[in-house]
Amino acid sequence: MTTVLSVDDVTKRFGGIVAVDGLDLAIEEGELVGLIGPNGAGKTTTLNLITGFLDPDEGTVSLNGEDVTGASPDAVSKRGIGRTFQISKPFGRLSVYENLLVPNVSCGPAEQEARIERLLEELQLEEVRENRADELSGGQKKLLELARVLMLEPDLILLDEPAAGVNPVLMDDIMDDIRRINANGTAILVIEHDMSVISELCERVVVMNAGRNIASGTFEEIRDDEKVREAYLGGT
Amino acid sequence: MVSVALLAQQIVNGLLFGGQLALIAVGLTLIWGVARVLNFGHGAMFMVGGFVGFFTLGATGSLVAAVIAAGIVVFALGYVTEVVLIRPLRDREEFGIPSMVVTLGLAFFLENAFIVWIGTQRQSFPRFTDVIWNVAGITLSAQRVLIFVISLVALGLLFVVISRTELGLAIRAVSQDHDTALLMGVRPNRVYAITFGISAALAGLAGVLLAPLFAVYPSVGWYPFLLSFVVVMVGGLGSVRGTLLAAMGLAVVRSISIIWVSSQMAMVILFAIMIVVLVAYPDGIGGYLE
Fold it and tell me: How far apart are CA A78 and CA A106, in angstroms?
């Protein structure tokens, strides 16, 4: 198995605060990994470091064996990383269809068109294809974000809280979509506070606390881990 | 008592002037909407367009070449301005005020550079045509109609680029969300520079088109800049639709008020309208047109 993402000994400081502290994290091809941790553990900073929005003070980030430390977000996206946000950020004044035209794909227009049609169908956005994105429901916005990321055919997708603001019925659909995307060979890293989502979805879970990777294993393993409990309960 | 004919004449004059004003003001609102820069150098781009047209006309004798050269050179000037002066400010926490001050500095620099180089005298620019039409008692100068039509064509082209092309889609995406556009592999810096170029080119085009009316001299850009500033404030910064409507409306108001008052007083009226609109609708009328 090849390693898609490798974060090695990465540190990020903001003034005197160490947000990420010597973090090690690796994701193998085709893995579906959960990233959890209490608020302020450094999860979102980690995503920003991986996607090039922040440069690490120390350490390296590699994609498919290639060092991308300090590369710009558009360069990182071209090398195969897609990301969605905690609060969905579709381009609100563009139609659903236009949103899917924005990703800078490397294929020709015919393939781009085919990809859009396939994703509209797979993610059940066919009926709203001409609607403005800001008219969609919260769940549909998440689906649109997912479709937009998939346009880039990434090797790894980073999902920041896919369950936030989504009704439970649609969440089941979204989880099915995530499993299906993963089954097609795309590695996925999910940040999520909803533990039921993590336990149902992820074969491996990484726990962060105070900017460090403190545990990694199956959901059951990390649930029984003493350090993890301490992190969530604040010691003792 | 004002005759109906005079009123009709002034409304037509106003609409014709509105088209030209829109050409300048749309560039100003576009660069705000996409790159969040209030470009005080917009009038200087107008001025440079006039001079490029003037020199090209002198060298080639072709008005068409003068108009095209003005568009191209001022596009390049806008592009370089964004890359060299605006881009370095973008990583700062505070961007709005520094970028505005830098463009104001650029305006003074360009104006004074031209004063040193050429002097303050007005260079006259030949009229495109002297034909005058008389339609139902209203006098129409072919020159003004031609400028109006070219302005509409330029604005129409801009509309097509923004709504129908890949570049336009990137412009619309970046104007809404810089970070997400980056994640989609779009390069916002390139989009900003091109948009700045397009915005400047519109001002440059207006500069050469209006050169026969305004003449060409280093400080010629301030009056059209001030007018277009009022237009975009009333129309709503960033709203192209609001800007078009405000350009037409304010140009007609200006034109009609000139029946009774001096053109300086008409300017005072426009500023008064701007203040009243801004008090009632702080974001201009654009937001209410969506």
Answer: 9
